[in-house]
Amino acid sequence: MRGATISRAWPAVLRSRNVMLRPLSYADAGAWRSARRRNAAWLLPWDATVPPGGDARPTSYGSLVRRLHRQARQGVTYPFAVEVDDTFAGQVTVNNVVRGSALFASVGYWLDRDFAGRGVMPRAVALTIDHCFTAAGLHRIEIAIRPENSNSLRVVEKLGIREIGYAPRYLHIDGAWRDHRLFAVTVEECPEGMLARLDRGDP
Question: Which of the listed residues 12, 73, 130, 182 has the most CB atoms within 10 Å of its CB?
Fold first, then answer.
């Protein structure tokens, strides 16, 4: 049964209006590197870093995709590239998929600044959550956000995802252990689907 769930969940292509999510691929290397380079200063305060004592060796894009694809085949990660009008715009990744009695995962995301303010990421995250609740058979999705990250906070606000707690020194971000606000939604809280909630404009 677990293998059947994984096969339904990945690989997947998700679409709504001009936003498409598809598996991150080796072919995205140029667009991915260009977006990360152009947005380096904008993304740096929110990027995960390696804590002291960890493996701080540089990771190439190819090795990143190989690792994510291996984890996707195992059903523990779903790495999506975000496209807007067929142009690479960012990434949404479902991390730490837990099955058994939990049926839980967390979602992280980043967006090219050129596409900010257009409602792209709320739509991309809504597509992702709906996919997790349906094809992946998950029950609960969590999003952890630094209190200072107003752009990410607007995403969960637009989707009506409730805050469930505060985690001091939760993740190693931008060179230090950072506090995060925790947001979560369960399938029972969104029976009509997250995308339908977003389009209705009434979280």
Answer: 130
Q: 19 is written with which tokens?
A: 């936003």
User: Which one-letter amino acid corresponds to residue 201?
Assistant: G
DSSP lists the bridge partners of residue 18 as: none
Whether the per-residue pLDDT at 1 is higher than 50: the answer is no
Predicted pLDDT at 6? 56
Pairing outcome for strands 14-16 and 87-98: unpaired
**Cα four-point dihedral sign 41, 51, 66, 128:** negative
Six-digit token string for 83: 């496209």
> For residues 21 and 128, is the Cβ–Cβ distance under 8 A?
yes
Q: Is the pLDDT of residue 55 over 80?
A: no
Helix then strand then coil, in percent of the chain rounded to 5, is 40, 30, 30
pLDDT digits (tens, 9 = 90+) for 98-157: 999 999 999 999 999 999 999 999 999 999 999 999 999 999 999 999 999 999 999 999
CA 95 – CA 128 distance, rounded (Å): 12
Q: How many CB atoms are located within 10 Å of the residue 52 CB?
A: 7
Read off φ and ψ for residue 69, nearest 5 degrees. Answer: -65, -40
In angstroms, the CA 201 to CA 76 distance is 31
What is the per-residue pLDDT for 81? 98
CB atoms within 10 A of CB 77: 19
d(CA 24, CA 62): 11
